[in-house]
Amino acid sequence: MVTLDDYYTAARSLVEPAAWDYIDGGSGDETTLRENLAGYRRYRLRPRVLVDVSRCDMRTTLLGSPVALPIAVAPTGFHGLVTSEAESACARAAGEVGALMVVSTFATTRLEDVARAARGPLWMQLYVFRDRTVSEDLVKRAEAVGYRALVVTVDAPVRGRRVRDLRNAFALPPGLAPANFPDIPADGSSAELAAQLARHIDPAFSWDDLAWLRSLTRLPIVLKGVLTAEDAAHAAELGVAAIVVSNHGGRQLDGSVTALDALPEVVSAVAGRCEVLVDGGVRRGSDALVALALGARAVLVGRPVLWGMAVSAAEGARDVLSILGAELETAMALCGRTDLASVDASLLRPASHRP
Ligand code: FNR
Question: Is 0.90 exceeded by the ipTM?
Fold first, then answer.
């Protein structure tokens, strides 16, 4: 196992086919899903030479939490689909490599148990429910056990039409449920997952409701799923602490811009007022370097961590994150950059051959 691609191939043969489709797939024609990967190939690196690169420092902070590398675990639901140790294994792995983890609302482990297993900083991802008391309870629980930020996912007011899941009528296997909400889907329903979740997530949640969220908690608020300068500027004006530029790994609006394409306009619109992270399609350390050069403070990685866990639980997740870190470190050194402050847009030029 030398590359993330090796983990992809191994995981694919281990995960039950419908669960694999749920993890691997995107919405619609999966155009955005493919573009997320292709986007990084549109850039080439401009290495500077004769720099002393005997030390390379990848440390940074994310909303004040020190991390060893600018690569974090994106929130993905239902880790129990790939390993019985689920989110606890992931939290352990992230902490061991010094990476931050964002825990999904739809974890298959209770958020308190994930916090107990964690060795590093955690942020809690939040889908706002129609029944606001459920979300209120989740926010309070996360704050009580030391989660350091709330990541509100804003690109999923309704669920994208994921063709593979619809064809498979994908539902969670017996025994697996969103552990934070004992009542879902233990209501006896075997409906397709999207239909189950759609009953709970509030499609009316909008800008004005952020004030309600802020009134519940002292935790910083992060918006995940912003893709335009307009929304980014509005978020910064409202005092949001960070933005994750993201198209949800190509699982929501098919045909949307890639996060990488949207990143420069978001960075420019917030003008330093909040931190900007990005996710979608990072499969190499050099991909992370491109995103950092375009102004991201860190990248998040979704599917590859699940591949790692499918192969060998915490050890696999740790290895995936370590491979990405090692590749980033090598790419930085070969570009003559020894710390993240020296990674900027001068590192990039457009590829002359567009994929
Ligand atoms: C996700 N993603 C996601 N996002 C979120 O805010 N809450 C969630 O519960 C989930 N669940 C989820 C499940 C699975 C199986 C995947 C693949 C993705 C989106 C995720 O946080 C992230 O935006 C993308 O996965 C990033 O793209 P890559 O790294 O998977 O290409």
Answer: yes
